[in-house]
Input
Amino acid sequence: MSTISRIHRRLPRLSGPQTAVMSVAGVLCAAAAATALTGHTGIAVALLAVLGCISLATSMLLFRRLARAQRAGVIAQRDLRTTVEEMQRRLVAAVERERLTAGDRHLELAEAIAALRQLTGGQASAARLAALPAEFEATVQLFQGFTPRAPMPPPGEHTLDPAGLLDLLHLIRLRKPRLVLELGSGVSSVWIAYALEKTGGRLITLDHDAGFARRTRALLSAHGLDKTAEVRDAPLTPVGIDGHDHPWYDPEALADLHDIDFVLIDGPPAPDGEDTRHPALHMIENRLADRATVVATGPDVPASWSHLTPENEPGSRHAVLSFTRTTAMVPVQA
Ligand SMILES: C[S@@+](CC[C@H](N)C(=O)[O-])C[C@H]1O[C@@H](n2cnc3c(N)ncnc32)[C@H](O)[C@@H]1O
Output
């Protein structure tokens, strides 16, 4: 590669007018040098003056361009700043919107939980909330099994939950008991009566509270189940077991019962935490059929029931036990 072409490569690329100006300046320089050397000093000075004018004009042109470029740079910088500020504003607005939306959601959730607490009488613990989908599923299955003839009250704090009811009704459908005794009446009495109406059994339910007995009676009547189920008033009375008095249903309410082949023990209520279910077996054992199913609400059963055979896993929602009469036990005869 020749030296000229190397220099040419290193020179910045010139535009057409720039090349023309440079060429004219080069020619003027060469002419001024030639005229000066040949003794035409006046012409040389004139040529140099023209060269100076051209340099001045070129410099002014360059300054103007530089000033324009600087102005354009300032404007571009200002536009950029405006764009960045606009984007920042939009970002802040979007974050604020999200924050408000999250706030709204939080408020809605808090309101829903409060409403739920109200519905469940203030007992909506986290565990209870977590159980809601399963309870809902069980409720759907309950209503698929029976079509109530009147509005069915929702389960409350004192009633068997839908999943417990579903298990209970399944057991009744399988075992088809002839006589069911329920200790503690309520909405469960209506569901049990619907099941027994289909299988051909009968329900006797005891209540210690005359008001609740009346309510259950009215419910059964509204559902047209008076022939299948009977509510008996059984105020709490001290019953003596092993030398101790325990509050239990008045035994008179059981006086005519025998061959009970299914028992649901869901009462009497235990306001002070005492296990009020304990006397139940002692009080009804001689009224049971030779084989009977005993369902007790709650996972634990009193130690005095150890002669019954557990049918389900310990810790289940309700204890399902089977009773088989031994020769030592004397049944009440019809
Ligand atoms: C555990 S509850 C029996 C509930 C019933 N087996 C049921 O599942 O619907 C025991 C007693 O509590 C009373 N009881 C029933 N429903 C009630 C309610 N909603 N509020 C307060 N006590 C109630 C009745 O006197 C009942 O005999």
Observations:
- Residues 156, 158-160, 184-188, 207-209, 212, 266-267, 269 surround S-adenosylmethionine (CB under 6 Å).
- The chain has two domains: 1-124, 139-324.
